[in-house]
Write a structure and sequence with these properties.
The complex is a heterodimer of chains A (294) and B (239). Chain A is of the alpha/beta class. Chain A contains ten helices and twelve strands. A three-stranded antiparallel beta sheet of chain B has the order 5-1-6. The chains are: A alpha/beta (294), B alpha+beta (239). The interface between A and B is large, with 42 and 40 residues.
């Protein structure tokens, strides 16, 4: 008997701006990723549009408002709201970014990197434990795309993530587009990053497509995580690599701009499914070959 | 975390939300030494663009009517005076509206009806955030029926009849006229609508602050028709 990893569920991040279209096209998706902050602060109409989907399609819970990296105590009231929403969505897990977005008196509403040091990792570990005690489903951390690095960072991206996940048992929501952009923008080998992750740590995957930015004050073009265009083949190649070593439960396409390009969205979903099928088929053949040789 | 990390995070966010970082020209503060200024500026630009998308999305007509030069000036002055303090679209819209109104108090806007347009757009953005219109309610002022002014309707005294702007006729001359507008999401609709409320009707609605029975209003024969019409437009709630 040849065992095969189950195929991950494939879906999109739910966006209320195309909520009607999403509801009419649920058959294309196995799962929807819900941004819990949209249920908390975007108003009753948007929240009820999301909760109406409970029971019609499985949903995962994703956050953008925790700012776990801000060097202040976590907002426990916010976490309690998250827990209530996760429960209402019947979501099997809750994910957030390993980043900070705000500091007292300012909210950038944009994900910023942390200094990658053991000291900062220890502080994050303590906060992850609080999240885990407050939101009773598995917690996942997501790698972000970043434009700048703190000069005192002395751990690699993978070392920083691995340390926190190992100590807390948190899983990794691996955003392969963020990895693709960071590798391009900062000149490292994304496959090296992937090889440094322990097998099985990746529980969910994000994919998206961005743009190239050229400004007169930049020495060279930068790739930006705009969630606005088709997923680049380079990011899907990284997805292939992930699927050979990990068994993510979901692969979610994130799209936040040019949302009316429905054909692009559905085409990206098809491309993701095709990559998954190809990796699974290859894996099956390899196992069959090994089995035959035995 | 390192004791000084919070200071660095505050310094970073103060810098990234500053006009100096967004529009260029100001070097990062001492706490941010070692960070690439060009990449910080790119980060500042991205965040600013996202914030302005939220604001312009809420004030589409206001920005469309404003001249290009005025638009650039007000955005730059807004960034300098009001750094981003909240992720939410409606809070950023309110922050911009308060800033614009204070500015227009000192220097009246051009065209002069811009403030009324912005006020209506903020009310519409607020309604969109709060939620959908009530279902249509059959209404009559008969025995046992009670009604009150809708809690979701926003009443705005305006100096100009700006409704043509929201009906797609930007080129139509805007009439200088004091009037009361009501903005609400009508029954069976998802989008806010604007109605003119004649002065006597507005006075009637002001009286309906609490649940009131038809009998308390003196049993006026025309009341049935008026109540039906107001309920049809969502201006009153009926129980």
């Amino acid at each position: 008997m040849i065992a095969c990893k189950p195929a991950p569920a494939v879906g999109i991040g739910y966006r209320s701006a195309i909520g009607d279209w999403t509801r009419a096209n649920l058959a294309h998706f196995d799962v929807l990723e819900i941004t819990v902050d949209h249920c908390i602060s975007s108003g009753e109409t948007i929240a009820s549009g999301i909760f109406d989907l409970v029971g019609r399609i499985p949903m995962t819970a994703h956050g953008i408002g925790l700012s776990i990296g801000t060097d202040v105590p976590l907002d426990l009231a916010y976490l309690d709201k998250v827990a209530a929403i996760v429960d209402r969505l019947r979501a099997p897990g809750y994910s957030e970014h390993l980043a900070f977005t705000r500091a007292p008196g300012r909210d950038l509403a944009n994900l910023l990197p942390l200094p990658k040091t053991e000291e900062v990792a220890e502080a994050i570990i303590a906060k992850v434990r609080i999240v885990q005690s407050r939101v009773p489903v598995p917690f996942l951390l997501e790698n972000i795309s970043y434009l700048f690095e703190w000069p005192d960072s002395d751990l690699t991206d993978a070392e920083f993530l691995n340390f926190i996940c190992r100590e807390t048992g948190a899983g990794l929501l691996l955003d392969v587009e963020n990895l693709y952009l960071n590798a391009h923008n900062h000149g490292f080998d994304p496959h090296g990053f992937l090889s440094d992750l322990p097998a099985g740590i990746v529980k969910e995957v994000h994919v998206a497509g961005g743009i190239t930015v050229q400004k007169d004050f930049l020495a060279r073009p930068f790739l930006a995580d705009s969630h606005s265009h088709p997923v680049p083949d380079g990011a899907l190649d990284l997805l292939d690599h992930v699927l050979t070593r990990h068994a993510p439960e979901t692969v979610v396409l994130e799209r936040d701009d040019r949302l009316q390009e429905f054909d692009e969205i559905l085409d990206d979903v098809r491309r993701i499914r095709s990559r998954i099928a190809a990796v699974q088929s290859e894996s099956l053949h390899a196992r069959a070959f090994v089995g035959a040789a035995d | 975390m390192p004791g000084h990390l919070l200071e660095r995070q505050i310094s970073l966010l103060e810098y990234l939300t500053s006009a100096g970082a967004i529009f260029g020209g100001a070097p990062p503060a001492r706490h941010l030494q070692g960070l690439d200024p060009a990449l910080l500026r790119l980060e500042a630009c991205f965040s600013h663009e996202k914030r302005m998308e939220k604001i312009v999305g809420s004030f589409a007509r206001t920005f469309e009517i404003m001249g290009g030069e005025d638009r650039a000036d007000i955005v730059r002055d807004f960034v300098e005076a009001c750094p981003s303090v909240d992720i939410r679209r409606i809070e950023n819209a309110r922050q911009f509206y308060d800033f614009a109104c204070a500015r227009w108090q000192k220097n009246p806007p051009q065209p002069p009806y811009l403030r009324d347009v912005a006020t209506c757009e903020l009310a519409m953005a607020d309604l969109r955030t709060k939620g959908k219109g009530q279902p249509s309610q059959p209404a009559a002022a008969g025995r046992g029926v009670r009604f009150r002014r809708s809690r979701d309707a926003v009443f705005l005294p305006c100096a100009y009849d700006i409704r043509p702007i929201f009906e797609g006729s930007v080129s139509e001359a805007i009439e200088r006229r004091d009037l009361m507008l009501a903005i609400l999401i009508p029954p069976r609709s998802n989008e806010p609508a604007i109605f003119e409320v004649p002065a006597p009707v507005y006075a009637f609605l002001v009286e309906l602050d609490t649940w009131t029975g038809g009998a308390a209003l003196g049993g006026v024969p025309e009341l049935d028709a008026l109540i039906s019409e107001l309920a049809e437009h969502g201006l009153i709630e009926v129980s």
